[in-house]
Design a protein that fits this description.
heterodimer; A: about 350 residues; alpha/beta; FAD/NAD(P)-binding domain; B: about 110 residues; Fumarate Reductase Iron-sulfur Protein, Chain B, domain 2
């Protein structure tokens, strides 16, 4: 029986831990937060079919309990040493672990929309993020403005914290486009009379069913898509939000007032990424995500022997991709430990 | 010969072979960041000059790259060079300098 430390108990860490435990390995999950399950725990429903997120994360959490994995929450790795095929990890709880392999599945964090100050997050109460909207939906199953009214007009802003040189994130976060379409539909399902807009630069409906969802948003729900990036948000005379963009297809500046603005915040490497990269001596790209040794074939192997990578710590991924990557990483580790 | 009133319409297609390729080459040389514009329109949306005039920086840059430069000299005069577009651009295009580059080309050609 070999010992494996998994850093990050989100979707990737939990799934890989399960596969490794089933093979009889001794798995220890090290989680920075006080709960397991990762970011998806904050989600209400998933694209493209509005499936409840809990149907995905509850079984993942449960299987770790069933497998009797050792889970250390509120814990981070402070330092790592590698000698004689053993990784010696010093944890924030003072404990030292000697393990045969390490899986880094430290995931992502949601972009902090305060950094895009001109979009008014934290300044105007009815400017929320896509993650906020999921929480609101999960708790209330309804959406209200700060004045307690049903929103009559809602706009979704794509690419907030993604594809934006000004905040230092030049990459596409991949899942926000389809999330915006899903959430736009959800607003229309709750409030059929509401007007819903999506402000986009490019719509990246890359996966199966996404294009259908986009069409459904237009055909069945009447969501209006405007090709233009939001420039700024201000308070309007009637105490709503005035937004400005260019309608690039019309070739004219455009402004309108909305009751609620939803910022589609992208994915960023976690705050731990820098420390982990230094301690384990592994590659990070310019975007801050970890880079495997081979992007096409051996995409779970890092530069450091016995240290493996899985999930969104390597860049934006959806849940199915993350789970597939986690299983692949587990398989790679099993072969490595043979 | 009686005049039947027939005329031949001028083609309105963008003809990249006949358009002004010289200006775009020179602009690209002077301000290469024009190449990375994705036409999102943030510059136009944030522009102070276009509320009362027909000035559209996104479109202007597109016209330059297509060699459609017939009205360019008049168009660039509307810009006040405030540089707000440059602060807002998500791609890091030096939009203000694109304008200055175009202006410089006209001076060079005089």
């Amino acid at each position: 029986m070999k010992k494996i430390a998994i850093i990050g108990a989100g979707v990737a860490g939990l799934e890989a831990g399960h596969v490794l435990a089933r093979k009889g390995h001794n798995v220890i999950l090290i989680e920075q937060k006080n709960t397991t399950g990762g970011n998806v725990r904050n989600w209400d429903r998933l694209f493209p079919n509005q499936r409840e997120a809990s149907e995905v994360y509850q079984p993942l959490i449960q299987q770790a309990v069933n497998d009797k994995l050792r889970i250390l929450t509120d814990t981070v790795v402070m330092s790592a040493k590698y000698e004689k095929n053993t990784h010696r990890l010093t944890l924030s709880n003072g404990e030292t672990l000697n393990v045969d392999a390490v899986l880094i599945s430290s995931g992502f964090r949601v972009f902090d929309a305060h950094r895009k100050e001109e979009y008014g997050y934290g300044i105007y109460h009815d400017v929320i993020t896509s993650a906020d909207l999921e929480k609101i939906m999960a708790v209330n199953q309804k959406v209200r403005t700060t004045k307690g009214k049903e929103p009559k007009r809602v706009a979704f802003v794509h690419c907030v914290g993604s594809r934006d040189e000004k905040v230092g994130n030049t990459y596409c976060s991949k899942v926000c486009c389809v999330t915006a379409v899903k959430q736009a539909i959800e607003i229309k399902q709750l409030y059929p009379d509401a007007e819903v807009f999506c402000l986009y630069m490019d719509l990246r409906m890359y996966d199966r069913y996404f294009e259908d969802l986009y069409r459904e948003a237009q055909e069945k729900y009447g969501v209006t898509f405007i090709r233009g990036r939001l420039s700024e948000v201000a308070e309007s005379f009637d105490d709503r939000l005035q937004i400005k963009t260019e309608d690039t297809l019309r070739g004219k500046p455009l402004k309108f007032n909305v009751d609620m603005l939803v910022l589609m915040t992208g994915m960023e490497p976690t705050s731990l990424a820098e420390l982990l990269a230094t301690e384990f001596n592994i590659h990070r790209g310019d975007d801050g995500f970890f880079t495997p040794e081979d992007e096409h074939v051996n995409f779970n192997i890092s530069r450091r022997e016995g240290v493996f990578l899985a999930g969104t710590c390597k860049g934006p991924k959806n849940i199915a991709e993350t789970i597939a990557d986690a299983r692949s990483a587990a398989e790679t580790i099993i072969n490595y430990l043979k | 010969m009686p005049d039947f009133g027939y005329t031949i319409n001028k083609q309105r297609v963008i003809d990249l072979d006949k358009n002004d390729g010289q200006t775009v080459r020179r602009v690209r040389q002077l301000e290469p960041s024009i190449n990375i514009c994705i036409g999102c329109g943030t510059c136009t949306a944030t522009c102070s000059a276009n509320i009362f005039t027909e000035f559209n920086l996104r479109q202007l840059m597109l016209l330059v790259t297509r060699g459609e430069t017939a009205n360019l000299r008049k168009d660039i005069e509307k810009c006040m060079l405030c540089g707000k577009c440059m602060l807002a651009c998500p791609r890091g295009v030096n939009t203000r300098n694109v304008l200055l580059a175009i202006s410089r080309i006209f001076t060079e050609n005089e």
